[in-house]
Design a protein that fits this description.
CATH class of one domain: Alpha Beta
InterPro entries: Chromosome_partition/occlusion (IPR050336), HTH_ParB/Spo0J (IPR041468), ParB/RepB/Spo0J (IPR004437), ParB/Sulfiredoxin_sf (IPR036086), ParB_dimer_C (IPR057240), ParB_N (IPR003115)
CATH architecture of one domain: Alpha-Beta Complex
Order of helices and strands: EEHEEHEHHHHHHHHEEHEHH
Strand order of the largest sheet: 1-5-3-4-2
CATH superfamily of one domain: Conserved hypothetical protein from pyrococcus furiosus pfu- 392566-001, ParB domain
Number of helices: 13
Mean pLDDT: 76
Shape: elongated
Helix content: 40-55%
Family: Belongs to the ParB family.
Protein name: ParB-like N-terminal domain-containing protein
Number of strands: 8
CATH topology of one domain: Conserved hypothetical protein from pyrococcus furiosus pfu- 392566-001, ParB domain
Largest sheet: 5 strands, mixed
Radius of gyration: 42 Å
Organism: Candidatus Harrisonbacteria bacterium CG10_big_fil_rev_8_21_14_0_10_38_8
Strand content: 15-25%
GO molecular function: DNA binding
Amino acid sequence: MSLPPVSEQVFLIETSKISPNPFQPRSVFDDDKLRDLAESIREYGILQPLVVTKVEEETETGIQIHYQLIAGERRFRASMLIGLDRVPAVIRNIGLDRQRLELAIVENVQRADLNPIEAARAYARLQEEFNLTQREIAHRIGKSREVIANTMRLLNLPTKIQEAVSRGVIGESQARILLSIEDQKQQQILFEEIRDNSLSVRATKAKISYLKSIDRKKESDSSKTTSDSMIEIIKKQLETSLGTPVKVEQSGSTGRITIEFYSSEELQAIANRFKTQEIEVTPEVEEPLPKTEIEHQVRINIHKPEPEIEEIIDEISPDDDDRPKMPWEDNLAD
């Protein structure tokens, strides 16, 4: 779909018989620019004719003919501002709604008259109402599919940010950067910073990198806290189950569990509990163990504390006549 060639016949049509295009993708018209255009038209006239399509309606008095605007709405509005009764227009036979929308989009895109949100909404309308794919839209509009897709993604932004893009408060590039922030609260905070401080695209990217680094640190700290809590829970569960002090140490993804016992009977009881609960007791080895389901290598030591000094002295007391004499005790007697 293209704009009318110069060779097409131009008619002077009464402005009262022309109605706006219901498929006009533009929703924002700058009043100051319209007044400037109106003054230009007053001085030089309309240099490029409007494009309209004829609409026939059957009434009680017969068939009434009026015209629907397809392209040139800014020129039409500016003409109305200075009170023109007639405007030059080319009449095109455009019966399909899709073609009217396409032509309106093409005209505005070629003139760079659509803001990014208006363009995104127009593309979405072609997709939703006329079942066109992004590739088909790109072919008709004369853009790449990537441009169409990236522009349409702007509609995923909150309404308030879309309005800011539409009014030119922030640029399209900055709006696309905001799309990379999943957290809407952070997205809103950064949007306000861009708006209030006029952040450049480079500054916006740097700010997002900083925010993401903070998020990664928070996730790391949270993971460490969760891991510490899990270890403490496991330690208490083991102590309750085994009835003896347990020490749990972790270093990175590996760790060691130390279980204390104070007699052979306690050791046997602990072993029996592990056997009953189907927990494998593995002595300390140099080779790393396979990862468990929680992806931690855990080494369990069964540890018997050294007897106290008093107990050793008591065991070698000379009052015990039944014990065998040590060789060095003869020297003590001399």
